[in-house]
Structure formats: structure tokens, C-alpha cells
Amino acid sequence: MTSTLITNIGTLVTNDPSHPGLLGTVEDAAVVIDGSVVTWTGRAAEAPAADRRFDADGRALLPGFVDSHAHLVFAGDRTAEFNARMSGQAYSAGGIRTTVAATRAASDEQLDAQVDRFVREMLRQGTTTVEVKSGYGLTVEDEARALRIAARHTPETTYLGAHVVAPEYADDPAGYVDLVTGKMLDACAPHARWVDVFCERGAFDGDQARAVLTAGIERGLIPRVHANQLSHGPGVQLAVELGAASADHCTHLTDADVAALAGSGTVATLLPGAEFSTRADYPDARRLLDAGATVALSTDCNPGSSFTSSMAFCIAVAVREMGMTPDEAVHAATAGGARALRRTDVGHIAPGARADLLLLDAPSPVHLAYRPGVPLTAAVWRAGIREV
Ligand code: NIG
Ligand code: FE
After folding, report:
1. CATH of 65-341, one of 3.20.20.140, 3.30.70.270, 3.50.50.60, 3.40.50.1820
2. Which ligand 1 atom sits nearest the alpha carbon of residue 93?
3. Which residues does the annotation say bind Fe(3+) (predicted)?
């Protein structure tokens, strides 16, 4: 194996609590990677020898972003719907059915190419781990196909057969829940790590969401929940009660919801791209952080509510609109995402961690929020391989 010494790092973000501050930063730092892992971090002056040397030229090095919530297996787009929204129309989950029709009509090759395109687009922006959901098939075959394709690109695959009730079951939602918890789950569980449900008016209520999640848990899947996005509902409490890894969106929360999240191991995953693209009020990250909840930031990349793949954009919005400091937002986009995916090998830089690294074209991670909309990727390594 070949080792590489990355030296002359202006600011190293480790997310390691043994170093100072929330981001565990080290100044004038160096990192050694060997094969797919990090083997050494510290001051450049104390760095050991390595086979190769990379001069970071005083720039900031971060863990690659962990995007723990994305819907990448789809065809078509929803430009017309976005245009209508920007002329005043409200977002509705009903638009999901437009993408379901386009996705069902697409070939396996088209869907695979689409996922590949988005994973590469994310990589170019520093995202080295991404979760990918099904949810635009809504038949046994189409959901299983979406997960088979997703699994070629990431181990973080999520069964979201319960995205909305399939059009064929519009008059029989109970029948659809039976399908999602029965034959569809049988076909999908072998290809999925997680089970998710859109718990919302117009999608699935608390009882239906509980049925979907408990059926998934019985098949060995770990729950995560689309919760409290468009209105207040039972999603967050259900996520906490079932020990979900993450409650996602968390836009409409009562004090009891915030307290429940803070007292639990369930991460509050905030998705500012969705509020941006639906012209809705942002979730209150400050309230969650002050209560002691763990917060993650993710893109929610999908053609309906949030067609961004940029974690840097989410960081900038979270800082400007959601009460987060730049350090908190960067932490949420790296270590927070890792927590939401229960991953201990990514989201931080320390000996033994996977060598997922983002070198910024900037001296400090603050620039991600300070220079919104500016492409700041200088280099990206994923599992020790230089990808960008
Ligand atoms: O996370 N909320 C449910 N699902 C997606 C939106 C999907 C769509 O509109 O196509 C979300 O925002
Ligand atoms: Fe989503």
C-alpha cells in the first residue's frame, strides 16, 4: 500500500473531541493516509515520512460531507411545478406521483446512469457518503429495482415504499400499507439497510407509519422517518419511540418534540433545500441545538422539493436562516450525517477513519458559509482514492 502525507494544511477539521472546539481543529496540520484509511494526524512539523507528499498550500482539510438523506433513483424533473410554486402555488406531496410515472417508464440503464450522475455531482462538491432512498416506484418490482440500483452506488440504501400511496391504491390506502409491509418489503429488504416512511397529512398517518416501520424492523431494517415536514404530526415522537436513527425535516416541532429528540439517540436531520425550494419557513436549528439534540444537515436531493446536491449550499442556508454558527453547520454536515447513518468510520478525521477528505479552496471551513454559491472544492479523496 502507498502512504500519502498531506502537509501544509491551514486548518484541519477533525471533529475529534480531543482537539479544541466543536470541529476539533488543528492549525499547521498534516494527515497521513495509507490505502483507504487515515493513519496519522497532527502538527505538520511532527509528521512522519510517507511514500508520497501532497502540499495543501495552507488550505482547509475537512472530512468529506455525509449526505444522509437523498432521493436519487428517479427519472424526469419537475421544472413546471417549481415554476408554478415560484409564482405562488403551494408545495404538495401529490407531485411525487409525477415522478413515479416517469420513473416507472425509465429503463434500468437510465436510472442507473442517473444515480451515477448525481453521486459524481455530489463527489465533485465534497460529498463522500450518500444515503439513497427508493420511493418513486411504488410497486413491488419498481421499488425492488430502485433499491438494487441504489445498492450499486452506496451501502446506505433506504426502503421508502411508503412515500405516498401508489395511484393504483388511491381508494384503498390500507391495502397499500399491507403491500408495503408484506410482499413489497419481502422484495426490498434484501437490498436495503434502512426503512423510512413519509409521515404526513396526504401521505401516511401515525398508525400507518408505525405499521411500516415495525414491519421493517422485524425484517432487520433500521428506521428513519420523514417527520413533521409540512405540518405538525406524530412523526418525531414515533421516530424517538421506535429508536429511529434519524427524524428528518423537523420543521414543525412542539416543545415536547424538541425535548423528545434531545433526550434520545435520534438525530434531527434538517433539510434546508426543501424549505428553500418550497418557499416555506426553515426549521429552527438553534432551538434543537440549545435543547441538546444532535443535528445533521442533508440535501434531500429530489426533483420535487429540493433539487440540490450541494452540502455547501445547505451549510450556507443553515447559517444564514436557521441560527447555526458556521462551525455547527459544518459539524452537522459531516459528523452529524455520520451519526444519522450510525457510521463510525466517516464524518471525522482520525487514525482508523476512512480516508474521505475534502480540501477546500479556502483557508478555513467558515468560508463554506461566508462565500455562498462559490465552488470551493480543491480536491476530494474517497476511501483514500483521489477522485477530484
Ligand atoms: O423529502 N417529503 C417527502 N419526500 C420528499 C419530496 C419528494 C418529492 O416532492 O418528489 C422530501 O421532501
Ligand atoms: Fe426526503
Report:
1. 3.20.20.140
2. 9
3. 69, 71, 226, 300
